[in-house]
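All the exercises in this workshop are built on plain-text protein records. A record pairs a protein's sequence with a compact description of its fold. Backbone structure tokens are a discrete shorthand for how the chain folds in space. Once this layout is familiar, the rest of the handout is easier to follow. As an example, a complete record with its sequence and its structure tokens follows.
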Amino acid sequence: MASTLDRRRLLTGAVLGGTASLVGATALGPLAPEAAGVTRTQAIEPGSPDPNFVEGRITGVDGHILRATSSDGSFHRIQLTTGTSVWKLRPTTMDRIEVGDGMYARGVRMPDGALAAESIWVNIVNLTVHISSIGRNVMHVDHHGSKIVAHVVPGTSAAVYNGTPAVSDLSMLLVGGHAQIIGAWHPDTNEIDIATVYAAA
């Protein structure tokens, strides 16, 4: 079996196409995983961290408070509310969030320093890959030298061919082809679940 992906490399280098910016989605705005990679329109001083954004690994869940450690070693508290949008392979509820999950969260800083989350993407990855092999409900892909097992989730996984609307039929994906996969990482493994594959037919 391929070696386990490095957590920092996955969460920092591969997630969201290698960028640490997220769209300022709200509970009433887009939660689609594609929205997570859109550049923000609000100006931030170059080189300054975005105060309304947190990335990292969840180290504790205490009711509606998440504790997380970012890839730079900083600690954060994220407050979830009934209006927080949660994505974990698909739009879901906060009870699906677990210790060990990776996450990106956008919201508003509270006076006590906690981030009141508007949107949170759990274990999201956005990978450009080369398809090595295709099996029943699984694809083996290469992402910049890392071997990844990408699982097709019936009823959830979809494909977009040449910009057409998403379909559940992944049969036009080709071994040897290139694709972009948005999905959800299985923490501490080299495996992901596929949300959407973008490929040329």
